[in-house]
Specification:
single chain, 79 residues, mainly alpha, AhpD-like, 3 helices
């Protein structure tokens, strides 16, 4: 994997991780490597899509927390 691709992945991952210092660092590093602002925006959009999917999954999971479905592995959950 080349450095530009690695930094674009890191940009998207920074968004998904909600890490503002990470995003600033990886955008700066990507620009130093010659990545265009449009490419960075595309990577950010992918990060936001992942973030949105994770939020929707958590919303669905938390809505059922008081009415848990049996886990296929037994008790399920911690504790």
């Amino acid at each position: 994997m080349d450095d530009k691709t690695r930094e674009l992945i890191a940009v998207g991952a920074s968004i998904g991780a909600h890490c503002q210092p990470c995003l600033e660092y990886h955008v700066r590093k990507a620009r130093q490597l010659g990545v265009t602002d449009d490419e960075i925006r595309d990577a950010m959009a992918v990060g936001h899509m992942v973030e949105k999917g994770a939020m929707a999954a958590m919303r669905q999971f938390s809505a059922g927390i008081f009415d848990p479905k049996p886990s296929p592995r037994g008790r399920g959950g911690a504790g």
